[in-house]
């Protein structure tokens, strides 16, 4: 589980709120992994992946628009990382997920938590600086 801390705040309110929402999506992935009441989690996994894809596209667009607005010098490197994230999510093989659901939930969870924390703490912090 990932808990938002004020140290993750970059100081741009609308981006910080969007980052908090990414944490919420990640935590729903975590909750799904930990929920042993569901025998078949496939539909829930797919729904979360679609939500993650849609929301990150929305968030990245907002963040990129803000970077352009403030003439952020590292805009292009951020854009490349954003595009890579979206590509990774879009390349998830839904058929593979059905074979070992918990394994794939764990992989998605690790990818999302690692990427979000790394990106916010090392890249996005510079936007607010």
From TrEMBL:
Q: Which domain of life is it from?
A: Bacteria
Gene3D superfamilies annotated for this entry?
Hemerythrin-like
**Classification via InterPro entries:** Hemerythrin, Hemerythrin-like, Hemerythrin-like_sf, Hemerythrin_metal-bd
Q: Which GO terms describe its molecular function?
A: metal ion binding
Enumerate the UniProt keywords alphabetically: Iron, Metal-binding
**What is one Pfam family matched by this protein?**
Hemerythrin
Residue ranges constituting the Hemerythrin-like domain according to the UniProt record: 11-126
**Family statement drawn from the similarity comment of this UniProt entry:** Belongs to the hemerythrin family.
Stated name of the protein: Hemerythrin-like metal-binding domain-containing protein
């Amino acid at each position: 589980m990932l808990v938002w801390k004020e140290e993750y705040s970059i100081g741009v309110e609308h981006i910080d709120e969007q980052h908090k929402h990414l944490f919420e999506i990640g935590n729903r992935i975590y909750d799904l992994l930990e929920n042993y009441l569901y025998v078949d989690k496939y539909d829930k996994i797919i729904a979360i992946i679609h939500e993650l894809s849609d929301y990150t596209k929305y968030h990245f667009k907002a963040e990129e628009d803000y970077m352009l607005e403030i003439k952020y010098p590292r805009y292009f490197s951020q854009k490349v990382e954003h595009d890579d994230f979206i590509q990774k999510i879009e390349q998830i093989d839904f058929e593979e997920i059905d074979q070992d659901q918990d394994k794939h939930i764990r992989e998605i969870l690790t990818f999302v938590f690692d990427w979000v924390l790394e990106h916010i703490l090392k890249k996005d912090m510079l936007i607010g600086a």
